[in-house]
Amino acid sequence: MYNRLAERLAALDWGELHRTLDIQGYAKLPVLLEHDHCQAIINTYDQEECFRSTINMARYRFGEGEYKYYAAPLPNILQQLRERLYPQLAIAANRWLAYLGGKGIYPASLAEFLSQCHQLGQTRTTPLILKYDTGGYNCLHQDLYGDLSFPFQVVFALNQHGTDYTGGEFLLVEQRPRAQSRGHAINLEQGAGLIFPTQHRPAKGTRGYYRMTNRHGVSTVHSGTRYSAGIIFHDAK
């Protein structure tokens, strides 16, 4: 199972992914997780020993649904995804900083980056699984858990839109300076992923690059149950 995932990760066309991220701010990943990968992650949902925290969205007015943060050590599949996706995303993150006039600050490996998080007191793991039943949704938000955050995160669809559930599109909204916001509604095949900005991205204007704020969420699930997994690269306080 894990060898197949490693092969698919190694075969990603990062040249095209980098170009897509620069042009539109997000990029779809092809199907990386096979059905048995997805089911293995879903099967952890009722294994409470796998998690450090469970959040009822309605309680905090985040939406309707539930998500759970995995405890360390992470399940092998999620650890692989986090470690192997990070290096190329760090390259993109440093490039985005340069577009905005800054210097690259993100190290080449996840271990180095997490060490920086831990030095700032951000020691709690952040990868999570999310579950929405009929009527569930997630309000627009940003996943910031401390002073240090990583500019990208990745979400994976664990079951199939149109078969296991309807509705429940992933929402990404760009707040453009002095203009109305633009929204994207995105569906993913089971096992596919989406790279998207955690907080903001550089956008090219007539006078160079400017900072565009992003928020994400999930539209209302009309029927069935929707599962997804989120790979967040910074740890939390």
Question: Mind explaining what this structure looks like?
Answer:
The chain has 237 residues and is of the alpha+beta class. It is 27% helix and 33% strand. The protein has five helices and 15 strands. The strands form three sheets. It has a seven-stranded antiparallel β-sheet. Strands 3, 6, 9, 10, 12 and 13 form a six-stranded antiparallel β-sheet that branches.
Helix content: 25-40%
Using only C-alpha atoms, the radius of gyration works out to 17 Å
Largest sheet: 7 strands, antiparallel
Question: Spatial order of the strands in the main sheet?
Answer: 1-11-7-15-5-4-2
How would you summarize this macromolecular structure in one to three sentences?
The chain has 237 residues and is α+β, with helices and mostly antiparallel strands. It contains 5 helices and 15 strands.
Which secondary structure elements does this structure contain, and how are they paired or packed?
Blueprint: H1 2-10, H2 14-24, E1 27-29, H3 35-43, E2 51-56, E3 63-64, E4 66-70, H4 76-99, H5 110-119, E5 128-132, E6 137-141, E7 152-157, E8 165-167, E9 170-175, E10 182-186, E11 193-197, E12 200-205, E13 208-218, E14 221-224, E15 226-232
Antiparallel strand pairs: 1-11, 2-4, 3-6, 4-5, 5-15, 6-13, 7-11, 7-15, 8-14, 9-10, 9-13, 12-13
